[in-house]
Design goal:
By secondary structure, the protein is mainly β. It has a three-stranded mixed β-sheet with strand order 1-8-5, with no helix packed on it. A three-stranded antiparallel β-sheet has the order 4-6-7, with no helix packed on it. It is elongated. It starts with 7 loop residues before the first strand and ends in a 14-residue tail after the last strand. The relative contact order is 0.27.
Length: 89
């Protein structure tokens, strides 16, 4: 499996797995790579409110789960911190 182009997301951001690929074995025994996202693949739920730790997402195609995971992380983005600002009079 190839990881997606983007693996770190802001809190609340939508998962984007563009660039990820999964190798599948066909009934004929041949193998092929499927580019994700793909309509035939299901990716386990990504919790965009869980921050600070990696989430290992599984990919399932035709009731078969890939042995490797997509590893992504959400972080709590702070735009500006005013807690150290002093008031001048």
């Amino acid at each position: 499996m190839t990881q997606p182009n983007k693996t770190v997301f802001k809190y609340g951001e939508t998962l984007d797995i563009t660039g990820a690929t999964v190798k599948v074995t066909l009934e004929s025994g041949d193998t092929t790579n499927i580019n994700l996202p793909d309509g035939s693949a299901t990716v386990s739920a990504f919790d965009n409110t869980q921050t600070g730790s990696k989430q290992n997402l599984t990919v399932t195609i035709n009731d078969k789960t890939a042995p490797e995971t997509i590893d992504v992380e959400a972080y709590n983005y702070v735009k500006e911190n005013n807690s150290n600002r002093t008031n001048k009079k």
